[in-house]
Design brief:
14% helix, 8 strands, alpha+beta, 27% strand, DNA-binding, 8-stranded antiparallel sheet, 3-methyladenine DNA Glycosylase, Chain A, 4 helices
DNA sequence: GATTTGATTCTCT
DNA sequence: GAGAATCAAATCC
């Protein structure tokens, strides 16, 4: 499976739709089925953290595929990425949303309120929170099966998928590197970054 | 060394 | 629809 992930993020991203991410941190097991992802193409992608080259924060992205890259956004939220490509290639796939398929009660507990199931993991920060994932998991190997968090590729195609521009990025905002499962209620609504330049007129 | 921004989300108007 | 909350890393002087 690791070889499957050792491809450019743009190749791996659609493959991750329908994949299952399972965390066993804290009080119990929570599994989510990925419904929305975004690809980041490393140093060639101005929207990627790796755009300026290797740093202490993004070091994991330059490592081997199949590891988890976790970073904090706005000081509040944790965001989860699957590292793809080979060593030295800083491509990664951001996990934006998912559907809780196991550990529903635990996820609901972490999210704090009695939300409908479709909102437990809608959005990158919410997904991480539902799984109990934090910066402590940065660099974790998703494929050993022994770690606190692991990834299982889908056995069957997820059905109809859609593709469009990435959410919230201020650079390269119009590049269609986001994939999601069409019609899924857990997919977050598209919101353009307030800092992004106006979209190119037709 | 100080300043600014960010792959966000929630709440109030 | 707009603004606040809040930490760290990158950038600038």
């Amino acid at each position: 499976m690791r070889s499957q992930l050792a491809q450019p993020a743009t190749e791996v991203a659609p493959l991750l739709l329908g994949a299952r991410l399972t965390s066993v941190v804290g009080p119990g097991t929570v599994s989510v089925e990925i419904t929305e992802v975004e690809a980041y193409e490393g140093e060639a992608d101005p929207a990627s953290h790796a755009w300026r080259g290797p740093t202490a924060r993004n070091a994991v992205m330059f490592g081997p595929a199949g590891h988890l890259y976790v970073y904090r956004s706005h000081g509040l939220h944790w965001c989860l990425n699957v590292v793809t490509g080979g060593v030295g290639t800083a491509t990664a796939v951001l996990l934006r949303a998912g559907r809780v398929v196991e550990g529903d009660e635990i996820a609901r507990l972490r999210r704090g309120t009695h939300l409908p199931s479709s909102r437990l993991a809608r959005g990158p920060g919410c997904l991480a929170q539902a799984l109990g994932a934090t910066g402590a998991l940065d660099g974790a190997d998703l494929l050993t099966g022994a770690g606190p968090i692991r990834l299982t590729m889908p056995e069957t195609p997820p059905g109809e998928t859609a593709r469009g521009p990435r959410v919230g990025v201020s650079r390269a905002a119009d590049v269609p590197l986001r994939w999601w499962i069409a019609g899924d209620p857990t997919v977050s609504a598209y919101r353009r970054s307030p800092r992004a330049p106006a979209p190119a007129a037709d």
